[in-house]
Write a structure and sequence with these properties.
The protein has helices spanning 11-21, 31-43, 54-64, 82-89, 108-121, 140-150, 203-213, 247-257, 260-277, 312-321, 337-341, 350-358, 370-384; strands spanning 47-51, 72-75, 93-96, 127-131, 153-157, 165-166, 169-170, 179-183, 196-200, 217-218, 235-236, 283-284, 292-293, 299-303, 359-362. 38% of the residues lie in helices and 14% in strands. The structure holds pyridoxal-5'-phosphate (PLP). Pyridoxal-5'-phosphate binds next to helix 3 and helix 4.
Length: 387
């Protein structure tokens, strides 16, 4: 099976992890802060807060910007469930903004129209989570301008987008948002096995996320709310969690980070090769904004269903049957059973649902060979013919 994504582990990654295993600290040592600084430097942010997953980072980001009961969080329906669940963790109400049919990201015009309605109804969102689907940046200038006008905070879910650029600047530099979150799950661009990281330029947001990552417990007298009772003293000043990243993960991540630019460049070369090889087939290849440089985490095609005999499902099955590990990113979150219980229904976000009816993610990862890619294209060609 050719998977849709997979990690690349080199000998230097293994050495980096082994070195930590033989050191004094498996957790809460020097590797995590070192990795945080390396990622922050890489993306041009002041602070990095490493955690055990991007899901945890999204939760901490929402708490840090003050999301709570009675507030609203809006995001795209075409994302992994974690981009929305972070709102529910904070007891906020979640709603969605339909996607742009060309970028598949949250549509800024739909956002603007929904904000105008929400203002009249007195239920403006506190947080908008902008998801850079497949690594292609959202229209952050538009979202940022709306955030100034309507007073919401912006969290970028850049789980697909580390190494990408928006208008010439790295995703994560925080020019248009409060916090940006990266994922280091093995299918993502670089990996720490499980792991995530939030970057921000705001000292207070970084401090809050770091505190909540580790139980809300501090040994820093500056953060204590009553006087220290002695040198043994620690104090719990907030209700936090154990969302810490281990030293092993941080060492792996920092070793991977050295190859970030090569990985993204390789993904671009493979994606452009797909564009050429698929040009004559009855499908839409991913549109790329000329002003941005995608992380190219996923290569999503949309089938032209009226031009082919087999159904979307049949094409998907035929690819899997031929050993091609295609996937579908994503099932619209509002149609998940859990979200239907909250009142959402099919039909609520038509562009997202149209996308879902046609989309297939083809295999794309840095160590994929051209021969494997040719196999994918041949299998897809057969599948589209209904053969
Ligand atoms: C993978 C992913 C997440 C969650 O990342 P984890 O590190 O697995 O928690 C969140 N949002 C998006 C868009 C993702 O792709």
């Amino acid at each position: 099976m050719i998977p849709y994504g997979r990690q690349d582990i080199q000998p230097q990654d293994i050495d980096a992890v082994l070195e930590v295993l033989q050191s004094d600290f498996l957790t809460q040592g020097p590797a995590v802060p070192h990795f945080e600084q390396a990622v922050a430097n890489q993306v041009g942010a002041r602070h990095g807060v490493a955690v055990n997953s991007a899901t945890s980072a999204l939760h901490l980001a929402c708490l840090a910007v003050g999301l709570g009961e009675g507030d609203w969080l809006w995001t795209s329906p075409i994302t992994f469930v974690a981009s929305a669940n972070c709102g529910l963790y904070c007891r906020a109400t979640v709603d969605f903004v339909d996607i742009d049919p060309r970028t598949y990201n949250l549509c800024p015009q739909a956002l603007e129209a929904k904000l105008a309605r929400a203002e009249r109804e007195g239920r403006l969102p506190k947080v908008v989570v902008a998801v850079h689907l497949c690594g292609q940046p959202c229209d952050m200038q538009a979202i940022h301008a709306l955030s100034e006008r309507y007073g919401f905070r912006v969290v970028e879910d850049a789980s697909h987008a580390i190494g990408g650029r928006y208008r010439g600047e790295p995703i994560g530099n925080g020019r248009y948002s409060d916090i940006t979150v990266f994922s280091f799950h093995p299918v993502k661009i670089i990996t720490t096995a499980e792991g995530g990281l939030a970057v921000t330029n705001d000292d207070r947001l970084a401090e809050t996320m770091a505190l909540l990552r580790s139980h809300g417990v501090t040994r820093d007298p500056a953060l204590m709310t009553q006087e220290a009772e002695g040198p043994w003293y620690y104090q719990q000043v907030a209700l936090g969690f154990n969302y810490r990243m281990t030293e092993l993960q941080a060492a792996l991540g920092e070793s991977q980070l050295a190859r970030l630019e090569d990985y993204v460049a390789r993904r671009h070369a493979m994606a452009e090769r797909y564009d050429r090889l698929l040009a004559e087939l009855p499908l839409t290849t991913p549109w790329q904004h000329p002003d941005s440089y995608s992380g190219r985490h996923l290569y999503v095609i949309r089938l032209e269903l009226e031009a082919i005999q087999p159904s979307h499902r049949r094409v998907f099955e035929a690819l899997r049957d031929q050993g091609i590990g295609v996937n579908l990113h994503y099932i619209p979150v509002h149609t998940q059973p859990y979200y239907r219980e909250l009142g959402f229904a099919p039909g609520d976000f038509p562009e997202a649902e149209r996308y879902y009816a046609e989309a297939i993610s083809l295999p794309l990862y840095p160590t994929m060979t051209e021969t494997q890619q040719d196999e994918v294209v041949a299998a897809l060609t057969r599948a589209l013919e209904g053969a």
